[in-house]
Amino acid sequence: MPLLSVLFCQRTASGFRSVLLHHARQSLSKSGTDRQLTIVRYNRNARNTRTESFAPRQTVVPTEVQGIVVESGYIHPSTIWRSLLFTTAFTTGSFIGVSIWEYETIRSRAMQALRSKLSINWFKERVKQNRQEMEQWRKDLTGWWNKLSPGERIFAPICALNVIVYGLWRIPSLAPTMVRYFASNPAAKAVCWPMFLSTFSHYSLFHILANMYVLHSFSHAAVATLGREQFLGVYLSAGVIASFASHVFKTLTRQPGLSLGASGAIMGILAYVCNQYPDTQLSILFLPMYTFSAGAAIKVIMGIDLAGVLLGWRIFDHAAHLGGALFGLFWCHFGSQHVWPLREHFIGYWHELRGPPKK
Questions:
Q1: What DSSP state is assigned to residue 3?
Q2: C-beta atoms surrounding 69 within 10 Å
Q3: Looking at residue 257, which CATH number applies to its domain?
Q4: CA–CA dist 90, 85 (Å, integer)
Q5: Which of 244, 178, 205 is nearest to 9 (CA)?
Q6: CA dist., res. 178 & res. 198, Å (int)
Q7: The pLDDT value given to residue 140
Q8: CA distances from 117 to 113, 121, 125, 215, 356 (A)
């Protein structure tokens, strides 16, 4: 089992603002200029007196990114129902989607095996193979991909998506769009899709490196146990459920703010692996001489997040972490044994809809 990183970055509202402040100070120190951005906080229901208990209406943050508007103020309870409905629909859709992916993969392999027995199809496959051999770059890419482990094959596209979104954050003109759709905020007008898109969103380099390191460390064991289709369903669902937990906590505590990062989804995978293999020995990054069991590690991590929720710590989005971890525990002890097998009923309907394969 790879090392457990203690540099596990968290999804956080105040942490996000601190990252902006850090990068801005570095930029200002290099350029010698003094540029400031006023992030306007406004209330969607300005006449409601309950909005007075929130943070100040304006917050001045030094940064080079211009035109960002962070929505704040009273969070209407109906937002929770919208979030719950989206979480339920997205989670169900995720597992239906990966079930179709599993079926189509098996169907494709069966058809390839059948066609390889026919001479005319053998000739066509031979011509296709010759064309592929002429494209050296394609051959090299295929060889590299085949050398990857199952866990690395599912990790690579997830990591690539996170890197692409990280690059989009570096484009100043896209900053308002990124804040609107790639940062989860229950007080915003766009509530549902940011719950999903924010799980692929990182603003700082340290954040994305730490999260991807942890995901890479545990993806191999998770994919080996779950399979790539079930792993993807758990990962995507854990991310959205983590966002929903964050929405509930922010609404109850009247603390709206931005949250982003893959930590909630990764916590779901981390909790699953640590409970599936509790006796596996892990160690701290840069301190490999100190080892501890995976079961003890997840208990400590969840304990810290629980304390953060109860004590009102605002450094990290502890509610999102707990939401993702609790879903991982649920899937380890119940979901994989009783929920995942239910896909066979849907696959039967999908098979009838697809009809017999064409020869």
A1: P
A2: 14
A3: 1.20.1540.10
A4: 8
A5: 205
A6: 9
A7: 72
A8: 7, 8, 11, 41, 18
- Give a yes or no: residue 121 inside a domain: no
**Distance in angstroms (rounded) separating the CA atoms of residues 251 and 80:** 8
What pLDDT is attached to residue 157?
Answer: 94
Give the domain extent around 194: 69-108+149-354
SS3 state of residue 70: coil
- Say how far apart CA 143 and CA 250 lie, in whole Å: 48
Q: Model pTM?
A: 0.76
- Position 131 in a domain: no
Q: At what angle do helices 78-115 and 343-354 cross, to 10 degrees?
A: 60
For residue 219, what are its two tokens? 């993806």
Taking the C-alpha atoms of residue 198 and residue 331, their distance in angstroms, rounded to an integer, is 22
Region of 31 (left: φ > 0; alpha: ψ -120 to 50; beta: rest) is alpha
Q: How many domains does the chain have?
A: 1
Could you tell me how many helices (H) and strands (E) the chain has, helices first?
A: 13, 4
Q: How are the residues of the chain apportioned to helix, strand and coil, as percentages rounded to the nearest 5? A: 70, 5, 25
CA distances 279 to 273, 275, 296, Å, are 11, 9, 9
The number of residues in the chain equals: 359
**Structural domain contains residue 140:** no
Mean pLDDT of each 10-residue bin along the chain, 359 residues long: 42 43 41 34 35 30 47 74 93 93 86 62 54 66 79 94 96 91 90 94 93 94 94 97 94 87 95 94 82 92 94 87 96 94 89 76
The verdict on residue 49 lying in a domain is no
Render pLDDT for 248-290 as a digit per residue (tens, 0 to 9). 999 988 888 889 999 999 999 999 999 999 999 888 877 788 8
Q: Whole-angstrom Cα distance, residue 238 to residue 115? A: 39
Condensed to tens digits (0 to 9), the pLDDT of residues 30-77 reads 333 333 333 333 333 333 333 333 332 322 233 334 456 666 666 777
Give kind and range of the element (H or E) at residue 247.
helix 228-253
Tell me the angle at which helices 318-330 and 228-253 cross, rounded to the nearest 10 degrees: 140
The dihedral built from the CA positions of residue 172, 258, 15 and 291, taken in this order, carries a sign that is negative
Residues acting as catalytic residues: 263, 321
